[in-house]
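DM from R.C. (forwarded with permission)

"hey, sorry to bug you on a friday — could you get me a structure for this? deadline for the figure draft is monday and I only need the backbone to look sensible"
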Amino acid sequence: MECPNCQAQLSAITYEGIQLESCPSCGGEWLEGDELGKIVRLRQQRFSKQEQQAIAKAEPVTGIKLADVDRDLACPKCGGTTDALHYAMDTGIIIDRCTACHGLWLGGGELEKVQMLMEAWEAKLPEDLKKLGPRMREIAAEVEAADDVEPSGIPFVGRYINLFINGVLDIMP
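My reply, with the result:
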């Protein structure tokens, strides 16, 4: 496959136990379908506390307009066009996703940034749950009480909110 960024030949590598294609020239990486999720869940490589904190403390970048960074790269797998996406909404990490085969192109260093961000968020989760847990329990009680009334015009909304809140409460210490 050819790099969609610099047209160098991509090389197969193993990263966190997952086979992916990497560009030896610009450092970009091509991932198939759910490989990014697998890498984030596996986390064989751990980043230092300083690296995690640097990424976690980075200011949200909400002013980036995707139209300004949409590179419309050619997919190295199927030749389709990619669309630029914000990873996790306001992280400032922009990835490109093929509109046809749904593969992902991450520029040099972006895969590591995604991993560091997820590790930092996971490390902060117990503190966040301790702080937000009481309010989430209140919301769960309100939703539970609301389930006893006539259903809203949007079916099952209360049930899904309740399932989400109960799922979060289940992982609280």
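R.C.: lifesaver. The chain has a mean pLDDT of 77.
me: no worries. Strands lie at 11-15, 18-22, 29-31, 82-86, 94-98, 104-106.
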